[in-house]
Write a structure and sequence with these properties.
heterodimer; A: about 500 residues; alpha/beta; 6-stranded mixed sheet; globular; B: about 325 residues; two-stranded antiparallel sheet; 15 helices
Chain lengths: ~500, ~325
Amino acid sequence: MLEMNGIRKSFGKVEVLHGVDLEVRSGEVHALLGENGAGKSTLMKVLCGIIGASDGTIYINGKERSFANYDEAIAAGVGIVFQEFSLIPYLSAVENMFLARELTNRLGLLDRKAMRKRAHEILQQLDVDLPLNAPVSSLSIAEQQFVEIAKALSLDARILVLDEPTATLTPTEVEQLFKVIRELRRKGVAIVFISHHLEEIFQICDRITILRDGEYINTCDTADVDNDRLVEMMVGRRIEQSFPDKPTLPEDAELALEVDELQLSRADPVSSFHLRKGEILGFSGLVGSGRTETALAMLGAHSHAKRSMKHNGQEVNFAEPADALAAGIGLLPEDRKGQGLITSFSILRNISINNYGKYRKGRYFIDLTKELTCTVDAMAQVSVKANGPNDRLDTLSGGNQQKVVVARWLNHDMDILIFDEPTRGIDVGAKAEIYLLMRKLTELGCSIIMISSELPEIIGMSDRVCVFRGGGIVATVEGDDITSEKIMTYSTTGKLENAA
Amino acid sequence: MPHDTTLGTSVQGNKKMNINLRQVMRSPLVLPLVGLIVVSVLMGFASENFFSVSNILNVLRQVSINGILAVGMTFVILTGGIDLSVGAVMAFSGTICAGLIVNMGMPGAVGLAGGLLIGLGLGVFNGALVAWGRMPAIIVTLATMGIARGLGLIYSGGYPISGLPDWISWFGIGRIGSIPVPVIIMFLIYGIAWVLLERTAFGRHVYSIGGNETAARLSGVKTQRIKLAIYTISGLTSALAAVILTGRLMSGQPNAGVGFELDAIAAVVMGGTSIAGGRGLIFGTLIGAVLLGILNNGLNLVGINPYLQDVIKGFIILLAIYIGRGERR
C-alpha cells in the first residue's frame, strides 16, 4: 500500500534522516518507534508533503508519488492526525469535518443536512457516537480525536497516520480508540501508529519499524519481539560522545535544593527530588512527560497545584522568575530563540539583560564601561566566537548562541542553573564545549539540573537521574543504575518489568 | 581569564571598524533623518523664511504637544504595546485641571497637580489591565479613551472651562529668552526619556520586553511591573501635554485632542521605532514629530484641503511601517 525507500532529509547542513525505509500494507497497523528526535515526525511530514525529502522515493499503491504540499497528499489518500489537533474549538464536529470544503446546495448556501448525514455515516462506520452539533471544545480529547480521524476518512484516506494519539487519553479512552483502529484495519486502511508506550504497541500493532537517530534500524513482526529487544533496538550501541569525567560527590554534600512536593495540576503525580551542591541532576523522560514544566513551575513560570521547596535549607516560594533570579536560580530554556534570547539584540544587550545590579552607577544608572568589560569577560570565560560584543545574536551559530545564554548566568554568580536541552541543534564540537563548561560550573560550586531528551547526554553527564512520565517523576536512578535500558523502560512503562 | 586581553583588544579594534557606512546605515535614525532633510529642503524652496530662527521655533512650538504625547507612546510601542487613549486622557486631564481651579476655587498649583494625577491614574489603570489583567493593549486603551473622553464631557457639560489665572498661559505661550516654554518643556521631557531608556536598567528592560517578552521574563525581568510603568509614563506625558494645551487655550477643553493618538503613533513610527517593539530610539520620535509638524505646516502653506491631510498622514504611517517591516526577520 505504502512504500517509502531511502528517504533522506537535511535541514541546512545537518542530515536528520539518513535513508529511511518504511513499508505499510493495507489493513495493517504499523508502529513507528524510536526515541525523541529519532526522525519519526520528520518522516511523517515528508510523507504528507509538509516538508520535501532531499532524496528517496515514495510509492503509494505501486505508483511513485511526491507531494509538494499537504493538499496533494490528502488528494492521494494520505491522512494524518497530529499530536496537536487542528480542530477549531468553537465549531461543531460537522463544521470541522467539512471545513474549507463545505457542501453547498444549488443556491450556494451551506447544505447542512447533507454534511450532517455524511458525517453521521462516517462516524457510524467507526462505530462512534458523539454529539455532532456541539462545539468540539466541549467534547472529550478522545472524541476530538475521533473527529480528526473522521475528517481524514471523509477525505477518503487510505493511509492514516496517528502521531502519538494516546498521549493525552485516559485508559478507557485508549480502549475506545483501539476499537476504532481495529475497525479501520478491518476496512483495509493502512495505519501508521506512533507511540512511545510499548505496551500499546504490543496490544494493537501488527508490525514495527524502528528508527534511531534518523537511521532505519529494523522492521519486524510484533509477535517476534519483546519489550527488551525493542528497547535495545531503540537505544542501540551508538558512537559515544566524549564526556568529561564525573567526579564523585562526597556522600554528605550539602543540599542546594529540596523539592518536597511539586504537582503540576491536580491530575498529575506529585514529584519530589533534591539537588546536592556541585551535582548535575538529569531530568530524563519523553517529550511531554513534564520535565520542562516541572522546572518552570519551580521558578514560578508555570502553574502548579502544589509546591513546597527549600533552597539552601530555607523555605522559598517563587512567584516569578525574577524572584528565583534574586535567590540565585536561573534557567536556560530549551527554545533558545523563542524563550532564551532576543535575537535582534546584540550580544552585549543579551548578556546584560538581567545583570544590571552588577554595574550600577549612582544607584539607578548603568555603568557603560563596566557593562562592556563584564560582558567581554563573560564572553571570554565561555569563549564565544564573535567579532565583538556588539554583534547581533542572529549572526551567531547555535552553539555560540547557547554560550551567550550561559554567559548571561555566569555573569551573575548563580547558585543553581537549569539547562533545558542544552545541546539541541548544536554540532558535536560545540556540544563537548558545553559539557566541559557545565562541569566547570559544578567545580565552582554551582549545582545543575539538566533536562535532556538525549540519553547519551543524560548518562554521560548526570550524577543522578530523575525519570519523568505522565507529568511527574516516576523513578530516580544513580550510579551504575544509570543505563539507557533502565531509563528507557521507566520512561515508557513507568516501572521496571522484572523489578525485584 | 587568559583570553581576556586578546578579546579586549579585538573588541577595541572592532569598535573602530564598526564606524563604517553599513553600520551607520543600519541605525534606525537614518531614514527619519533623510526624510527630515528632504522635507526641510523642499520647504526651504517653497518658503524663503522657512529656515529662519523664528520659523523653526514656531514649528517646534506647534510640534510640542504631539511631541510630548509621542514620548509616552514611544515607551509603550517599544514594548510592543500601543496607547490609544493619549488624546482623550490629555483632554480629561486639562478639563479637570481647569475645573479644580475655576469651579472649585483651588490654587493653580493644586489644579495642575490634579491634572497630572488624572493622567497618572489613567496610565496606572491602563498598565494594570494590560500587565495583570492580560488584556490586549489596543482594546484596553481604546476603552480608556472612551471612558476618559466621556468623563471629561460629563464633568464639564461639554463646554470649555475658562477663567484661569493669567500665569497659566506661561506654559502655553510663554518664552524664556526667545525660546517658547513648551519647546523647553518638550526638550526636557525628551532628555529625561533618553536617560531612562539609554542609561538605566529600566530602559533596557523596556527594549527587552519588545524584543522577546518570554525571554525577558525567564531571564528575570519583572515584565508586569515594567508594563505598568510604561503605561503610567504614557498617562503622565499625556497630562504634561495637557498643561501646555491648557496654557495655550487658557481653558479646559473637554473636546480637545481628538485624533491625537494618530499623530503620536505617526511620530513614533516615522521616527523609526518598530511597531512590533524592541527597536527604536527616543530621538527618532523627536525627528518623527518634527517631520510630521513640518508636513502639517507645509500642507497648510501649500493650501491642501485640511481634510486631505489626515488621509496623507494615514498613508505616511502605513509607509513608515512598511519600510520598518523589512528590518525584522
